[in-house]
């Protein structure tokens, strides 16, 4: 079901040229990146899946913080990792995405975070946008088991 906006809060435009081997730039120039296909490791480039993962992680972190505040928790130290997987499907399009969000919060056990994740899932614009179209996994983990930003292999 499509849900129309009742009021616009923000609007932006990005322009792409050259597809996965081109570039993308926002109107205000704050984002201006070269692109390369996901499997090619070209220095100084990114790909659409990384951009989607970054936006999704940031958006879900904000939704999670809003929900955590309702439970009296400060989520400023929360970690949200968004994994976006590109793969093939048995559809006429042939390709699709899958998303996994892994969330931790210091002082909270994974089991206690799960209700917050489901509430954040209900309010996050990105999760609403993919609902029914993209498989989405929500995983709460103990903070010491959470992925550490910047600790991955960036090669």
Order of helices and strands, N to C? EEEEHEEHHE
> Overall 3D geometry?
globular
Instruction: Name the average pLDDT.
Output: 91
Structural class, from secondary structure content? alpha/beta
Share of helical residues: 25-40%
Strand content: 25-35%
The termini sit apart by: 40 Å
Report the C-alpha radius of gyration, rounded.
17 Å
> What's the main sheet like?
4 strands, mixed
SS element count, helices: 3
List low-pLDDT spans: none
Strand segment tally: 7
Widest sheet: strand ordering:
1-2-3-4
Structural overview:
The chain is built from three helices and seven strands. The chain has helices at 48-70, 110-123, 125-130, and strands at 14-17, 23-26, 32-35, 45-46, 79-88, 95-104, 136-140. It is of the alpha/beta class and 155 residues long. The protein has a four-stranded mixed sheet. Strands 5-6-7 form a three-stranded mixed sheet.
What is the fold's blueprint, element by element?
Elements: E1 14-17, E2 23-26, E3 32-35, E4 45-46, H1 48-70, E5 79-88, E6 95-104, H2 110-123, H3 125-130, E7 136-140
Parallel strand pairs: 3-4, 6-7
Antiparallel strand pairs: 1-2, 2-3, 5-6
Helix pairs in contact: 1-2
């Amino acid at each position: 079901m499509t849900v129309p906006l009742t009021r616009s809060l923000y609007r932006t435009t990005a322009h792409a040229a050259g597809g996965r081997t081109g570039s993308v730039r926002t109107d205000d120039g704050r984002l201006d990146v070269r692109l390369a296909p996901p499997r090619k490791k070209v220095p100084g480039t990114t790909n659409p899946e990384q951009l989607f993962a970054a936006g999704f992680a940031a958006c879900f972190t904000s939704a999670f913080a809003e929900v955590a505040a309702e439970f009296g928790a400060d989520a400023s130290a929360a970690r949200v990792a968004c994994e976006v997987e590109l793969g093939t499907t048995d559809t006429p399009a042939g390709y699709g995405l899958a998303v996994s969000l892994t969330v931790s919060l210091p002082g909270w056990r994974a089991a206690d975070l799960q209700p917050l994740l489901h509430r954040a899932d209900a309010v996050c614009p990105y999760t609403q946008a993919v609902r029914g179209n993209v498989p989405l996994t929500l995983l709460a983990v103990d903070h010491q088991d959470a992925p550490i930003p910047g600790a991955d292999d960036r090669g």
